[in-house]
């Protein structure tokens, strides 16, 4: 099923992944952050969605609730009880916070860069910022990754992030740290055709 351009699949059964990433903190409660929070919760992982603006978090919660309802109706169209259970359980996995410092204290994965415990893997939704530049201020550089492999990204972190991406229903691709990464480079190449 495609939801916001994302293929929704069952949770990965990888025990290594389940032990590595259980708590995901997403910094930013806008459209992208709430979408990532939704698919992560759908995949059975605990999520803390963080934004400094409580109104943004309130809107995000409403949006996630509506979108989960749409997914549930499509996936469980013959079973309304399962649909309701899916929505209820997914929503129960999502907490919100306006305090990013406390939100990352139990994080196994932080989406967007923020100071966090040394065991936390940093991931980014950027397609224009250099992963190597972000990594330059992190003490443990080999643990920063967004499926874009930085110059010092360890193989273990890379594999963990690929598994996590698959567990929330993503098709994972790898590319080097280049401007625009893959998708935006392709978009720029096709824009003249699209706009004519």
TrEMBL record:
Q: Keyword Phosphoprotein on this protein?
A: no
Q: Which InterPro entries match?
A: 3-OHacyl-CoA_DH_NAD-bd (IPR006176), Mito_3-hydroxyacyl-CoA_DH (IPR052242), NAD(P)-bd_dom_sf (IPR036291)
* PANTHER family the UniProt entry points to: HYDROXYACYL-COENZYME A DEHYDROGENASE, MITOCHONDRIAL (PTHR43561:SF3), PTHR43561
Q: Which Pfam families match?
A: 3HCDH_N
One Gene Ontology cellular component term attached to this UniProt record is: mitochondrion
Any one GO molecular-function label of the UniProt entry: (3S)-3-hydroxyacyl-CoA dehydrogenase (NAD+) activity
Q: What GO biological process terms are annotated to this protein in UniProt?
A: fatty acid beta-oxidation
Which residues does the UniProt record annotate as the domain 3-hydroxyacyl-CoA dehydrogenase NAD binding?
23-115, 116-178
Task: Identify the keywords attached in UniProt to this record, alphabetized.
Answer: NAD
The organism's superkingdom is given as Eukaryota
Please report the organism this UniProt entry assigns to the protein: Leptidea sinapis
Presence of keyword Cell division:
no
- Please give the name of this protein: 3-hydroxyacyl-CoA dehydrogenase NAD binding domain-containing protein
